[in-house]
Amino acid sequence: DIQMTQSPSSLSASVGDRVTITCRASQAVSNYLAWFQQKPGKAPKPLIYAASSLQSGVPSKFSASGSGTDFTLTITSLQPEDLATYYCQQYNYFPLTFGGGTKVEI
Amino acid sequence: QLQLQESGPGLVKPSETLSLTCIVSGGSISSRDSQWSWIRQPPGKGLEWIGSIYNGATTNYNPSLNNRVSISVDTSKNHFSLILTSLTAADTAVYYCASRGVVVVTTVSHWYFDLWGRGTLVTVSS
């Protein structure tokens, strides 16, 4: 199985900050990577697919990059509504696997 | 616009079998090129893919579930289902149904979870 490792596991930031989350795959997954935002008590919401393509309706404050084994998700101008846990997920190989999550606190 | 809603028991006894259904509304389940999927999340933990079904019959399951899982589609009822056998407390989780839709990016198809149900909590306890 491909292991997805996210760092940090949690972070605390201030309103207006720029936040970067990293995700590393145990083997190359090309750009078959998605990012999700999960708010407390809610289902995950897709943010990014194909490593850097923004899901329709997602604000441009979210951006992502990477290919192969190393990926990043960046949130600019952090707002209280961005309080959530963020997950990366590879979909190049079965079993599909998720990172352990990064909890963003404000 | 399609919506997904999980349906099933909230409490199941150890060693029994869990049966969940994902009701697809707002359109026909046959109208979407999708891999219909199940994902779960134990309380306070991360996400685990359970399995997916494509073209009504092609299935992929997570080997970690040790052949305890089965996913099927019923197009006449516009829903798909999950069966998980030999339950233990470790199967306690919020179960999500999801659709792996496809988007083509520079001629490459990307199948990712673009549509999710709200989730249903299943507790395994006697």
Short précis:
Chain A has strands at residues 4-7, 10-12, 19-25, 33-38, 45-49, 53-54, 62-67, 70-75, 84-90, 97-98, 102-105.
Description of the molecule:
The complex is a heterodimer of chains A (106) and B (126). In chain A, the strands form two sheets. In chain A, strands 2, 4, 5, 6, 9, 10 and 11 form a seven-stranded mixed sheet that branches. A four-stranded antiparallel sheet of chain A has the order 1-3-8-7, with no helix packed on it. Chain A has 106 residues and is mainly β. Helix content of chain A is 0%, strand content 49%. The radius of gyration of chain A is 13 Å and the shape is globular. The model of chain A has no long low-confidence stretch (mean pLDDT 97). Chain A has strands at 4-7, 10-12, 19-25, 33-38, 45-49, 53-54, 62-67, 70-75, 84-90, 97-98, 102-105. Chain B is mainly beta. Chain B is built from no helices and eleven strands. In chain B, the strands form two sheets. In chain B, strands 2, 4, 5, 6, 9, 10 and 11 form a seven-stranded mixed sheet that branches. The relative contact order of chain B is 0.30. The chains are: A mainly beta (106), B mainly beta (126). The interface between A and B is medium-sized, with 24 and 23 residues.
